[in-house]
Amino acid sequence: MLTPDQARERVQDAIARALKAGADAADAMLSGGESLSVSVRLGALEDVGRAEHEELGLRVFTGTRSASISATDLSPASLDTLAQRAVAMAREAPEDEWAGLAPADRLLKGNVPDLDLDDGTLGDPGTLKARALEAEDAARAVAGVTNSEGGGASASRGVWALATSHGFAGAYAVTSHSVSASVLAGDAGAMERDYAHHSARHARLLESAAEVGRRAGERAVARLNPGGVNSGTMPVVLDPRVGSGLLGHLSGAISGSAIARKTSFLLDALGTQIFARGIRIFDDPHRPHGLRSRPFDGEGLPVSPVALVEDGMLETWLLDSAAARQLGLEPTAHASRGIGGAPSVGPSNLYMENGRLPFETLISDIDYGVYITELIGHGVNLITGDYSRGAAGFLIEKGEITRPVSEITVAGTLESMFRELTPANDLEFRYGINVPTLRIEGMTVASS
To answer: Residue ranges of the Metalloprotease TldD/E central domain (predicted)?
Structure first.
């Protein structure tokens, strides 16, 4: 695998070749690395995989025209051809007055911050196999588990580099380690499935495989013999692993591209109350070991923690440079970048702060409601805010979780869901987007 220094030199070299080929400006991104994965089922090895990759994406500008191109052959001759083709494509592309590199005076200066995202290890197939077996064994040991879809473990190590023709060059390395299990409970015709997984930047921070497996097994058994619900308007409580989706919808609705196109239900919401008072939502790219931490954004701008919602008030849009120009604003360093194409908007470690109530207190006054642990389908419209999803979980009666439910539908509008939301105090940083348990008043629930 390339070192960060070597990766940075590669993208700088690609920029030089693009300018030599006739580009007025350019940026280049490189992604390289290696990964290992092992899967087991019913105690036997199913698959071992290893992959290596190295790919470079080049974006060039000729005036207000631009084009993007990528390659996996990074030899000097290939990069010369890549640059020439990109410039030829750009000259034939339509003009775009908003496209361009980030403002030069906003670029990250000096050294790239060290966020401790790389533990320097990839592991070996034997270690991963043992981890996957331990997870599956723990899941199958839970009383009521009758079959398995398998256990898995993986590890990867990679490097990212970005350079621009107007003064930025940076690179950093990351590692990722994960373990998972998925099992079934019950007999044929009445089986239920569930899973658990955990990921971490450092292997030492990975949750024990036995704990991950036990949680998968207990979740599957808890779902046995589900029923329906009495249709009506009631409180809905979202488990953190599904509640995080609400912040995903929020970030999509406040992205600069949606605002510029006028395709967001929050179009006129900046500076207004969209959540209850006391709600705080942050984006923290500097979180140590964070699954979405990054030292700079996809355009080379320095990143820093920012409040998106403060005391329920929407404080900012999420802007890359193109959207910022279109709106007459400054970029917020939320450009996200893949190898191909232009940057788009994306948050880093997005999370909602803890509320004040323990989970038990949060549900204690619910006479009849549902606790959702799974959401199904894509019935969310960010233009109108309409929300309708298939769901499964558990019935709440007189402040207690009583029995599993499935094949139900929960519906409302994101605007009212945000406004009627109360967080518990059980926030854990387990995913890229994290929330505590969320209670939402007045949602429409029906059996499918």
So the answer is: 129-224
